[in-house]
Structures are given as C-alpha cells and as structure tokens.
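hiii, so i know i said id send this last week but things got crazy w the move. better late than never?? heres the sequnce for the chain we talked about at the cafe, plus the structure i predicted for it. fair warning i was half asleep when i ran it
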Amino acid sequence: MRDDGDSVDARLAARLAELRTEHGWSLEELAERSGVSRSTLSRAERAETSPTAAVLNRLCAVYGRTMSRLLGEVEAEPALLVRAAEQPVWEDGSAGFVRRSVSPPPHPGLRGELVEGRLAAGADIAYDRPPVPGLEQHVWVLEGALEITTQGVEHSLGTGDCLRMRVWGPTRFRCAGPGDVRYALAVVLP
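okay and structure toks below
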C-alpha cells in the first residue's frame, strides 16, 4: 500500500492483529479458517510484508468485511469528501493490480462504496469466495478489456460495458490485454 503519512501497511498490520485478537483466535486458528499459512499471517501482522489481494480477500471473508471497509478502518480520520490526491491506493505488484478507494471510508449507516481498479495486461486474479456473501457489485470498464468469471460464467467486457452481479462464490478478474484495463467497481453490501 502507498501512503504519504504514517505507514498504511503498519496500520493495516495492527488492525489485522486486533481483529484476530477480538475474535480470540490464535494464528493457527485463523490459518485454518482463512486457508492462509500461519507464517504469511504472522508476517502480515508484523508489517514484514504487505498481503496480496487474494490474502486480504480471504481475511475479509473470515472477518465479514469488504476490502474497502477493512482499508477504511486503517485510515486516520473518516471524511465525507476525499480529494483525488488523498484517495488511498493499494497495490499488489506481484499480481499487476492497483486498487484506489474512491469513496470516503465506509460508514456504519451506508452500504455502498466506489473503487477504481487497474489490472496490467496479462493480470489474472482469482478470489475463492466473496468477502461478504451476496455482495452486489457493478463493474464498469472505463478503458480496455476485462474478463470476469462469476457463478461459472465468463463475461467479456470492453470500454463502456457494465456488469452487475451478486457474488456468492468464486470470481475471477482477468486482463487478457493487449493493454491494461481500468474499471470502476461499485460495491453494495447486502
């Protein structure tokens, strides 16, 4: 993750450790529940490594949070307006994925959020489960081409196309190329 102030990675690490403690789970128990290795969890909680998108998705599923909500919990102060230059950006360089939280941090009384995603040509990210079952998502391709697989059906989207889906199981986001893809993702909690 990138951040101009104090380290978002350090705050994320601390929040992940807090969540595990709040649930009364050992690292072994969390590893069992999430399918993420104990060593990866330990390194993430100590900010020795930044978790990948797939790892964060698994942890969000275990904790019943969207990724935006989790990342919003580590922001210093929630706001109603977030200027473009202040929108938090998280990067999974190994997967070729960049995620910008466009909306102000999630608020308990609100259910929707807006995210900008960018996938490099050839990037292929598979999520084994939704962070919250029944999550509603609207994917609007702003530039490029994107393949999304949900409920076993592959959808090919080009610039301007929008796919609405309710996520119950595995999903896959793939940028076959030749160029990168940039898309808006509207997320609505059930």
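btw The first strand starts at residue 89 and ends at 92. thought thatd interest u
miss u guys!!
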